[in-house]
Amino acid sequence: MNNDTDLNKMAIEAKKATFEMAKSSAEQKNKALKQLIENLKKHRNGVLQANLQDLALAKANGLSDALLERLSLKNRLDGIITDIEKVIALPDPIGQVFDEKELSNQLILKKCRTPIGVLGVIYESRPNVTLDISALTIKSSNCAILRGGSETLHTNKILVELIQEALKAAGLPAGAIQLIANSDRKRVKELLKLDEYLDLIIPRGSAVLQKFCLENSTIPVVTGGIGICHLFVDKEADLERSIEVILNAKTQRPTVCNALDTVLVHSAIAPILIPLIVRNLEEKGVAFRLDNKAWDLFNSSSCTRANPNDWDTEWLSLVLGIKVVEDLQEAIEHIQTHSSGHSDGILTENQQHAERFTIEVDSAAVYVNASTRFTDGAEFGLGAEVAVSTQKLHARGPMGLQELTSYKWIIRGNYQIRT
Predict the structure, then answer these.
(1) For the packed helices 77-89 and 26-42, what is the interaxial angle rounded to 10 degrees?
(2) In angstroms, how far is CA 403 from the centroid of its own chain?
(3) Under a CB-based contact definition with an 8 Å cutoff, are residues 228 and 262 in contact?
(4) CATH number, domain 7-222+399-412, options 3.30.565.10, 3.40.190.10, 3.10.180.10, 3.40.605.10
(5) Is the pLDDT of residue 3 over 60?
(6) Does domain 229-374 match CATH 1.40.20.10?
(7) 265-296, pLDDT tens digit by residue?
(8) Does position 1 have pLDDT exceeding 50, yes or no?
(9) pTM of the entire structure?
């Protein structure tokens, strides 16, 4: 792998590679992904050893438990390989034609999907992102310059070597996927200024990282992945089944962006439901932040009173806020005020309430009677994702193959002239 940290040189190479990727066939791209799977299987031990090296260094440097969990590839490589296989099985979006029509002057117009170009992807702690993004980037005929966190450097180096070997085996340019193998944070700022060569910046990480990219980039930025996620339990919800959903949303994997942060409970059912939530979830190690109304109804050793900042906190751990609301209106207003626009849901048997909730809650993913943990590219049938966008342009929610495309107009005529 090229360890050159001359970003300008890397960007030029990536831009050059876009012309080769744009004309690559679906068969070539799938061949590269199949070869990547073979490389991962063949070099599994080397990948895991590099990951253990990163984990040891991260622990020594005091990385939080949540970030350590995200960093680890233990028991995850098979799942990642399965996701790459799903990407292979998806139709190639490049060249797809849509919105075709004929004008009154007999000109025939159509839109054709094209690659975006060169992506600059900046992320922290999660080496699986290296593989997810690379698979989607290759399949969508794009190129990418990756900048993972310093804590994942050893893992990312070996992964990108395997990716580049797979590209070459398929007759595609190795420069289509490159890694900034330098942990100096100044490189991020340099990357954000390469608008001559890069077409889109995708930061995956903390709110601080995303704000930094927005403030310093001369390239369009897609932000997202910060999840302050809510479930509102309506007075007409099935309480027993609601407990199951809340338990899953909070504890199935608490360190990720679509994990539940706050439960809003209708006051009519709060005296029954809040004790059930606390008793069921504290068995899983969950600690609770209760508003005053919830505190007065029930509390235990796992509970503390919430402070105002708790409602704006993405916990990324086994902590859950519980707030009592008087009605659907108050629940919606709380979500409108405190949600990050990622994933929010309602648990109810009242279809009018469900319909109103889906209209008035403007998050990237709005759920009715389901766990927020489904907001994920693989779960949505996208194979994988490069990010979960909480913006409204140009993509929203999990970004898969189609979200990594632009389009161009193609106009066919018979020597028409404009009069």
Answers:
(1) 170
(2) 12
(3) yes
(4) 3.40.605.10
(5) no
(6) no
(7) 999 999 999 999 999 999 999 999 999 999 99
(8) no
(9) 0.90
